[in-house]
Amino acid sequence: MKRYFFKFFLLTGITFFFAISCAPPKLDPLSMQIKQEDQQQVVIPDACKSQYKSKIYRVAVVPFLNNTIYGEMTVRNSQIEGRADINRRQAGVAGVIVGPGAAGLGYAGASRTDIKYSGNVNTFMRQIAPKIGEFAQSAVENTIVNLGGVDVFTRSQMQNVLDEQNFQMNLADQNTVVKFGKLAGVDYIISGSVDYINARYIPQTKFKDTGNAWLNLTQAVAKSMTEGWNVTTEMTIQLIDVATGQVLVSKKVRGRELGGVQPAFNPELIISAAKKAMGESVTDIKSVFSEIFNARGYINQLRGGKYVALISIGKSDGIKPGDTVEAYQFAAIKDFMTGEVECYKSTISVNMIVTNQVNQNSAWVIIKGNESAKSRLKVGTLVERAPYEGQGLLDKLY
């Protein structure tokens, strides 16, 4: 109980700190005047106008392959009612017991047990279908949907295509997956596999008071993060371009979660912890996929001497309060040798933070940066949501 109370206290304190320091800024934009410098408009070179075009990509996430040992399984349960008198004599040694997908401390040796028992023993079997591949598919789908700006092909739509075309999809065959993508009319296919689920038991140790508050705190944190069944997972996630059949992204993501402190191996607790670890690990694909499926717009209005800006992307594009937005300036540059005119894209060194004022197709941002950089911002300046980051420190620890 103390362990969980401490963990709750620690997480609550750290979460409160981050909530205070990282809360999105509040803003009343219409209270600010439009000044003369706010009315400047960008001139877009002909060679750069295509940069403003934005497309909603259609994406299908297919079921993931389950390459682990955790498939459908049968579990034996015993319910005992009555009384037993046990006389046990045993000799042996303590050591490490290793089983499929698990390892822990145990006891091996010879023994003799005399049992006098009266009562009822009810033993029954249960079927467990963890559906690891389907869970991985759902976790990735949710992450992609939350990015915004993407039309995700639903499972019912996917099944309709398979039924109508009488198509059998082999998830292990990339060519078959690409063929399905063309039949479905999607731009990208996201596929992958759950490569392993590993469970390792670390026994509980007695807490030792060091007499130092900080050392006691460190010891308590270490215990709360490691004792019990340590479940680790690894998944491979791929993004396939349907038009070319090329794999654009292939990324491995790893997760970790505790699956209970009791030494007895419980497959249901391990699977539950593994799913939580997998769900958290897919956060690591956000940094890559948010660059590919990026929300893109432009500045519609500036106020307060380029202190705030109204941008043309909002909730429908996945924009949320606290998001960071990047701004770009363009120049048409003529190649010295070929004479061809190309568009050069340069990042403007400002930090634009989305405020609490977010509408369906627009959002207000606060602009931070030096005056020289802010002076380059104009009505019509191209903006993009900055790539998201992966798992944070707390996610990896817990």
From TrEMBL:
Classification via PROSITE patterns: PROKAR_LIPOPROTEIN (PS51257)
Signal among keywords: yes
UniProt keyword Signal present: yes
A Gene Ontology term for the protein's cellular component: outer membrane-bounded periplasmic space
Family matches, as InterPro entries: Curli_assmbl/transp-comp_CsgG (IPR005534)
Organism, as annotated: Flexistipes sinusarabici
Pfam families membership: CsgG (PF03783)
Signal sequence region: 1-19
UniProt-recorded name of the protein: Curli production assembly/transport component CsgG
Species lineage: Bacteria, Pseudomonadati, Deferribacterota, Deferribacteres, Deferribacterales
Keywords associated with the record: Signal
